Amino acid sequence: MNHSTIPDFLLNDIIKRALEEDLGGAGDLTSRAVISDGTTYSAKINAREAGVISGMQIAKIAFLMIDKTLEIKTCIKDGSYVQKNDTCMTIKGDAKSILMAERVALNFAGRLSGIATMTSAFVSKTKGTKAKICCTRKTTPGLRLIEKEAVRHGGGANHRFGLNDAIMIKDNHIAAAGSIEKVLERARKFASHMTTIEIEVDTLNQLEMVLNAGGADVVLLDNMTNKDMLLAVKMIKGRMTVEASGNMTLDRISSVASTGVDFISVGGLTHTVANFDLGLDF
Fold this sequence. Notes:
The chain has helices at 8-23, 29-34, 56-66, 95-124, 144-153, 171-177, 180-190, 204-213, 226-236, 253-257, 268-271, and strands at 40-47, 51-52, 71-74, 81-82, 87-94, 132-134, 167-169, 197-201, 218-222, 241-245, 263-265, 278-281. By secondary structure, the chain is of the alpha/beta class.
């Protein structure tokens, strides 16, 4: 699994906005009302189920953004598998500070660990094949960077981060341009030598047009049957990278991977995911 971290400064604004949303103008009224100044405690973030952890880096930043004097130990690195009841992080220091950051830290870590855990489940279905599981741009607005990192923590790969990453020609682009031949010709003229061109096809007839026109680096087989995907891979003969997408459920992934595609993109990794159960206990 991937244990690399995003530089903290790229995450600060995301976390700051979340803390501002939760604390509002008056801060944590409950802790201010019932906890005496100077009260210190030790807390643990524990996994309440098994899975792949993501978001510990963000949780740490959230706590330290509230109180730099907190003593934090990350026991489980992002991208690691945990069992139920494993301790992922310990936090020692001012009780009020810990509680002010608790919900934001757990919201991020729970969401991201859910993504990493689901990704890991999909990746496990591709064993013995060359297929890689990747995410899409169907992410929570404002959280794409960290949600895509969670996919990597789960063993997956990243598709485009934004519209400026590559030229990806979809059915609406083809309709607006007039034809597959026209859209590929225009894309080739526009692209630099560093720009990847991907084109989406729905049928084997469209794939034949793409192969005849040339110019694409990647072809996306969208909502094809497994039988058609197998035929498509044979038609392409290694001339382009092959991606499959559309209705990619966990039950179907093994059979799709066995068709010989290079990538399988799954929007559900980031838009339909269960929150991972983490808790903070004093």
